[in-house]
Design goal:
Layout: E1 2-7, H1 12-22, E2 29-32, H2 43-55, E3 61-66, H3 70-76, E4 84-86, H4 90-100, E5 104-108, H5 114-125, H6 133-141
Parallel strand pairs: 1-2, 1-3, 3-5, 4-5
Length: about 140
């Protein structure tokens, strides 16, 4: 599974922890789209890089992190075919995958600790889309 990861300055520390953790698994290939320090940056630039990589087939999923998770979520959802969801626990991640077929996970670097982030990410990456009645709803998003 190929995963795009990106953050702004507020999510940088959590991004680095997540990247190192995911790199310990042989079944994940992590592609880091920045930022590469805590120097202030504009979050849309990094959200756009990660989401574009999913749309062009370079990655299967994305994980994007900013201070609250909201800004990068808004930026990512500007792209047709991207379903970015700001999750704060494993249950929201599970439902985002099952019901919304989310392909980008957003995290709030100032709100979520690494332990919670690991639970959220594990759930997100290991939950399948249920399809069925949810498929029609998802199709309406890309009209």
């Amino acid at each position: 599974m190929k995963i795009a990861i990106a953050s702004d300055h507020a999510g940088f520390q959590l991004k680095e922890q997540i990247k190192n953790w995911l790199n310990s698994f042989s079944n994940y290939k992590i592609n880091d789209y920045g930022t590469f320090s805590e120097k202030s940056v504009d979050y849309p630039d990094y959200a756009f890089k990660a989401t574009e990589s999913i749309l062009n087939g370079e990655n299967d999923f994305g994980i994007i992190i900013c201070g609250s998770g909201a800004g990068m979520s808004i930026a990512a959802n500007r792209f047709k075919g991207i379903r970015a969801v700001n999750c704060w626990n494993a249950e929201t991640a599970k439902l985002a995958r099952q019901h919304n077929n989310a392909n980008v996970l957003n995290l709030g670097g100032r709100l979520i600790d690494f332990s919670n982030a690991k639970d959220i990410i594990y759930t997100f990456l290991n939950t399948e889309f249920e399809g069925g009645r949810h498929t029609t709803r998802i199709e309406k998003l890309d009209l």
